[in-house]
Amino acid sequence: MVRLAAEGGFAGAVLDAGCGTGENALYLASLGWPVLGVDVAETALAIAREKARDRGIRVDFAAADAFQLERLGRRFSTVLDCGLFHTFDGTERPGYVASLASVTGHDGTLYVLCFSDDGPDTGPHPVSQGELRAAFSPSTGWHVAAIEPDRVQTRYHDDGAPAWLATIKRI
Ligand SMILES: C[S@@+](CC[C@H](N)C(=O)[O-])C[C@H]1O[C@@H](n2cnc3c(N)ncnc32)[C@H](O)[C@@H]1O
């Protein structure tokens, strides 16, 4: 996120889908972006709000299901998925992808950072590039602009796990 932000990868209102305890949302909000972090875990949201208070950062956190984002009644220019997509199986992905599309304006950008299948020492539920391209095919309203190898930090890898950073544009 630090690198993406430094490269000018964020614009307008930002949604952090599956924000957990909010580190990414807090970082982006600290740079001045209007950020909403959503999660189904109230305990995680409570921690995220406490961090925001302690750090004096203005950021919104709300309980919301990533499968029903249209209920937010909002549109975002940039959406971030750090570690959420890879938790969904093939039957769940179409609903999630449609939900993301419902809150992302034309030409909006979605970043997906997920465990990759390009080992060694992959995380659980590794995802292939083909699966990403299939999930976000043009018929779903998305265009995969880039998929780059990266690392995702976990609690059980010393130097993170192999990941894909996908940059996906709303058609
Ligand atoms: C691996 S954690 C990633 C947390 C955070 N994005 C990060 O990078 O540290 C995945 C998060 O997705 C949340 N989550 C799982 N299913 C969800 C759903 N249907 N809607 C919203 N959040 C969900 C979990 O509660 C968890 O906080």
At a glance:
Helix content is 26%, strand content 31%. The protein is an alpha/beta fold and 171 residues long.
Structure write-up:
The protein has 171 residues and is of the alpha/beta class. The chain is 26% helix and 31% strand. It contains five helices and seven strands, in the order αβαβαββαβαββ. It has helices at residues 2-6, 23-30, 42-55, 93-102, 129-135; strands at 14-17, 35-39, 60-63, 76-82, 104-115, 142-152, 161-170. The protein has a seven-stranded mixed β-sheet with strand order 3-2-1-4-5-7-6, with helices on both faces. The mean pLDDT is 97. S-adenosylmethionine is lined by residues 18-20, 23-24, 38-41, 44, 65-67, 82-84, 87.
Fraction of residues in helix: 25-40%
Strand order of the largest sheet: 3-2-1-4-5-7-6
Order of helices and strands: HEHEHEEHEHEE
Report the radius of gyration as a whole number of Å. 15 Å
Q: Main β-sheet: number of strands, strand sense, barrel status?
A: 7 strands, mixed
SS-derived structural category = alpha/beta
Q: How large is the share of residues in beta strands?
A: 25-35%
**Total count of strands:** 7
What does the overall shape look like?
Answer: globular
* Ligand set: S-adenosylmethionine
**Total of DSSP H or I helical runs spanning 4+ residues:** 5
Mean pLDDT: 97
Measure the end-to-end span.
Answer: 23 Å
Unreliable spans: none
